[in-house]
Structure formats: C-alpha cells, structure tokens
Amino acid sequence: MEVARMQRRSNAYHISVLAVLMAIIIVQNVVPFFGYIPISGLSLTTIHVTVIVAAVVLGPKDGALVGGMWGVIDWIRAFVAPTSALAPYVFTNPLVSVVPRVLIGVVAGWTFIWWQRRGKQMLGLTLAGIAGSLTNTILVLGLIGTLYADRAAGFYKVDLTKLMPYLLTIVGINGVPEAILAGILVPLIGMPLLRFQRKNK
Q1: Alpha carbon 97 to its chain's center
Q2: CB-CB contact of 27 with 34 (8 Å)
C-alpha cells in the first residue's frame, strides 16, 4: 500500500513537472524577449534551456517530447506568423524545425545519464546543457546549409561558396554564447529540481 502511494505521488510529480515545462515552452514562444533575448546585436535563444532541463530531470524521452513541442510550434509559426524572412522557406520543413529540437532532449538526456552514473551529477548537468544547445545550433544551421543552400545564400546575402563558412561564423557568434548560457542555467535550475525529485521519491 505504501509503495503504491509513493508511486502515485512520484507519477503525479513527474506529470506536473512535464506540464509546467510544456507551458513554459508555449510562453517562451509567445511572449517577446522571453524565448529570444536580443543582446548587443545577437538574438540568444533560451527555449532550448527548458528542453534540456526537461531531459535531465525527466529523462531523454520527455526531453524529446518537450523539444518536439517547441519544434511543432516553430513549424506552425513558419506558416502563420514567421519570425524571419527565412522561416517560411526553411522552418516549414519539419526536418529543420522539429527534428533538431527533438534531438536536443535525446542528446542532453543521455549526456546527463552517462555522467550521473559515474557520480558526476553537476558536471553532467553542465555538459548536458552545452551538448543540447550545440545540437540545436549545429543541426538547424547544418540542415539549412545542406537542404537550402541556394535560398539561404540569398537570404543571408552571401556568396554561395561562402555560405558554410558564414553559417559556422553564426555558430560561433550565436551558438557558443547560447551553449555557455545553457551550461550555466541548466545546473542552476536542474539541481534543485533533482533534489526535490529525490526527496519526493
């Protein structure tokens, strides 16, 4: 009886955290400057942090689910309310808008599990944040460069032969700060949630 009661309590906690993180994803996509923060000419994405937190606290499966939700929202917005001139051309393709966001949860979740099993939970949180963030940046820009080279070169106003070096520059300018941000925020948010989760179990 006691085991069943604790199992129900653990399941309720799991579902509650998942619902809250999904709600945060929606808010980050709707409220200006919450999911995308402009800083000194950059547009830093913070939505991936929520996906990574879901992956480390709830596991890769739920991280992939939360990431997929972000991707689907991005995919829908590309049709009805594109966030950039490039969005209607590239983010209407689920390979670009959805798949990388699903893989954020998978990569971050398993990165954390690997390090946690070796007794290095804090390091695992940090590396999961970095790995998840870079997964999003590299896959999105890589797929744009691979699948839409001609169009992307036109929108970015660069010579087609210089497109990949230009996209790699974006990885450095935007992707690296986002990875650092995730590496800092994921442990700060994830550690208290994991402690509460252990206490709840």
Answers
A1: 11
A2: yes
Residue 42 β-bridge partners:
39
User: What are the chain's domains?
Assistant: 2-200 (1.10.1760.20)
Whole-number Cα distances in Å, 60 to 39, 43, 108, 133, 182:
30, 27, 7, 14, 17
**Rounded to whole angstroms, what are the CA distances from 147 to 41, 42, 91, 131?**
27, 25, 11, 23
Q: Which tens digit of pLDDT belongs to each residue from 15-40?
A: 888 999 999 999 998 887 777 776 55
Question: CA nearest 55: which of 147, 193, 164?
Answer: 193
- Two structure tokens written together for 148: 């839409």
The pLDDT assigned to 41 comes to 47
In terms of phi and psi (left: phi > 0; alpha: psi -120 to 50; beta: otherwise), the region of 93 is: beta
Residue 37: predicted pLDDT: 72
